[in-house]
Specification:
Layout lengths: L4 H6 L2 E7 L10 H14 L3 E7 L19 H9 L3 E9 L2 E2 L1 H10 L18 E8 L4 H14 L9 E5 L16 H23 L7
Parallel strand pairs: 1-2, 1-3, 3-5, 5-6
Antiparallel strand pairs: 3-4
Length: 212
Amino acid sequence: MTPTSQDAEDQPLRALALTCSLKPSPAPSSTELLARQVLDALGGHGVTCSVVRAVDYDIRPGVEKDMGDGDAWPQLRAQLLESDILVLATPTWLGQHSSVAQRILERLDAELSETDDQGRPLTFGKVAVAVVVGNEDGAHHITGILYQSLSDVGFTIPAQGVTYWNGVAMGKTDYQDLDRTPKSTAGTTATAAANAAHLARLLRGNSYPAIA
């Protein structure tokens, strides 16, 4: 029996968070903390979640799906392709996304050449959410870069599909140092997660049309 659109929508969703801290595990990371809060919120919508700290892996520079010579990206890519939702989380350094996040974006460029039997990139139908954290300005600028890049390689961005926290300019307090999550950040996290899960279910049951 061929699955119906409703059957597809009812299947459990999976989310993968790629956190792009410059700190290897097990160092505490504000970026990973906020990413995990997004995953917790997604879990409340029936999404199965996992998290990877990208700097722990030898992701080689390049724009191919496998750069060879011990490249760790193919195994991370496999996890990404098994997921419906990508949570891409980055700290803010010098007002920019991290170099690790840039490496991820560059490796995702290869997806433009990886298509299904209808000519669609394998990322079509997948949803992406952005997470930005730092004690300096830059969240809106970084969000714009992440949105454009992720959309270019085939991901769909939900309404208000970002959550972020910026501390006091030139301050020393990290997100993980706060006594409690700010109400505004908690609200954007809940909205991003709810909209991502909703959109992913819609796309699961009604994919984009074939590319001529």
